[in-house]
Amino acid sequence: MAEAGSQGLTVDLSGQVAIVTGASQGLGQAMAGELARQGAKVACVARNAEKLASVVEEIEAAGGEALALSCDVTDRASVDKLVDDVIEKWDRLDILVNNAGITRDTLLPRMSDDEWDDVINTNLRGAFLFARAASRVMMRARYGRIINISSVSGLMGNSGQTNYSASKAGLIGMTRSLSRELAGRKVTVNAIAPGFIETEMTKVLVDKFGDQFIKEAKTRIPAKRLGQPAEVAVAVAFLASPAAAYITGTVLAVDGGMTG
Ligand code: NDP
After folding, report:
1. CA distance 170 to 188
2. Which of 20, 199, 206, 218 should be mutated for ligand 1, with most atoms under 8 A from CB?
3. Does ligand 1 come within 6 angstroms of the Cβ of 98?
4. What's the gap in Å between 19 CA and the centre of ligand 1?
5. Backbone angles phi, psi at 96, to 5 degrees
6. What angle do CA 155, 22, 14 make, to 5 degrees?
7. What is the pLDDT of residues 86-126, one digit of tens each?
8. Is 246 an active-site residue?
9. 200: enclosing H helix or E strand
10. Which of 34, 17, 111 is nearest to 69 (CA)?
C-alpha cells in the first residue's frame, strides 16, 4: 500500500487562489502540486526562477494552473508587490502557505551573526511579511487560510539548530497570536510541524553525517521511517480546505509520532 497519501484526500479548492513560498523544490513543490491538483490556482514563490519554471510546467502538464514568481521572502517591497500582482492576475487570495525556509546549523558558541540573522530573516520575517500582506486581503474578503510550516525542531529543540528552532518556535507563536486576531473574519491560521521528511534539506544532513544519521534518526521516529513530501502536502490541503473552518491556532505535527 502506498504510504504517501495524496491519492486518499479530495478537497474542493476550485476557483481558489494560493501562494506557496519555497515552491521550487521539496515540500513546497509537493504542496503547490497538491493544491493545484485540488483545483486551486497556485503562485509558486522562490528565488530560483529556473526551478520555479519547471515546477509550474509540471503543474500545467498535470492540468493545473500555476504561476512562477521569483522573490526573496525577506524583501518587504518584493513581497508586497508579489501579493499585489497575484491579486491583479487572479482577483483574490484564499490560501497562503509560508514554507520557504533554510538551515545554517552549528553549535551556538560558534554561530555567526549572519547564521543567526539569515535563518530568522528567511524563516520568520519572510512569513511575517507574507502573512501581513495576505491577511489584509483575506480580512477584507472575510475568508482565508494561512498555513505556516514550522518543524519538530520548533517544538522539541535540536542541538546545532538554535537559530532554526527559534525561527520555527517563533512561527508557532505567530500562528497562535494571528489566529486570534483573524478568527472573527473567518481567516484561519495554523502551523504544520513536519518531522524528518526526505528532501534536499535532509539530504544535506545525510551527505554530511552519512547513512548512520538516517539510522539514528529512525530510532527516534516511532513510525521507523522518514516521511515523504506528499504526506505533508495532504495536511496542507486539508487545513487549506473550507472543511477546516473550525480549526485555527493549532500545530499539526506530521512526524511519524516523534513528538507524540
Ligand atoms: P528545501 O531546502 O528543499 O527547500 C527550501 C525552499 O525554500 C526552496 O524552494 C528555496 O528556494 C526556498 N527559499 C529559501 N530561501 C528563500 C528566500 N530567501 N526567498 C524565497 N524562497 C526561499 O527545504 P524543504 O522542502 O525540506 O523544507 C521546506 C520547509 O519545511 C522549510 O521551511 C523547512 O524548514 C520545513 N521543514 C522541513 C523538514 C524536512 O525534513 N525536510 C522538517 C521540518 C520542517 P530558492 O533557494 O530558490 O529560493
Report:
1. 18
2. 199
3. no
4. 15
5. -125, 125
6. 100
7. 999 999 999 999 999 999 999 999 999 999 999 999 999 99
8. no
9. helix 200-209
10. 17
Angle (CA) 45 74 161, round 5°: 100
Residue type, 190: N
Q: Tell me: the pLDDT tens digits for 211-253?
A: 888 888 899 999 999 999 999 999 999 999 999 999 999 999 9
Considering only the C-alpha atoms of the chain, give the largest distance between any 2 of them, rounded to a whole number of Å: 51
- The residue count of the chain comes to 260
Beta strands in the chain (DSSP E): 17-21, 41-46, 65-70, 95-98, 144-149, 187-194, 251-254
> For residue 123, which phi and psi values (nearest 5 degrees)?
-75, -35
**CA torsion through residues 34, 37, 38, 44, sign:** positive
Contact in structure between 47 and 72 (CB atoms under 8 Å): yes
How far apart are alpha carbons 164 and 171 in whole angstroms? 11
Q: How far apart are CA 91 and CA 145, in angstroms?
A: 16
Q: pTM to 2 decimals?
A: 0.97
